Amino acid sequence: MTHKAKWLLFAPAGLLTVGAGACLISWAGALKERKVPTAQWVGAGTVALVVFNAGLSLFGHGVSESVLYQLKEKPADQ
Q1: Which residues cross the membrane (predicted)?
Q2: Residue numbers of the domain that contains 25
């Protein structure tokens, strides 16, 4: 798989995952406000943060693949 293909896969996947994680964080906060048992909202919040951070990681990997692609495509005389 080329750097460009990886970039075009990981960057959008990371953005989607970050968005999903942000929604889940909001959901976990709503659970806390509704006074559900502590274990339930803490567990939901932990899962939400894992999803959010996974999205940041995926997006970061996409950015690194973009840089590698740009370096490979850069003409040698520059």
Answers
A1: 7-29, 41-64
A2: 3-73
Token code pair at residue 20: 């999903």
Q: What pLDDT, on the 0 to 100 scale, is given for residue 75?
A: 74
- pTM, two decimals, is 0.88
Query: Is 40 among the domain residues?
Result: yes
For residue 42, is it within any domain?
yes
CA–CA distance, 43 with 41 (Å, rounded to integer): 5
Count the helix, strand and coil residues of the chain and give each as a percent rounded to the nearest 5: 85, 0, 15
Residue 78, domain member (yes or no):
no
Q: What would the pLDDT profile of 15-53 be if each residue is shown by its tens digit?
A: 999 999 999 999 999 999 999 999 999 999 999 999 999
Number of H helices, E strands in the chain: 2, 0
Q: Is residue 58 part of a domain?
A: yes
CA distances from 11 to 30, 33, 43, 48 (A): 29, 33, 27, 19
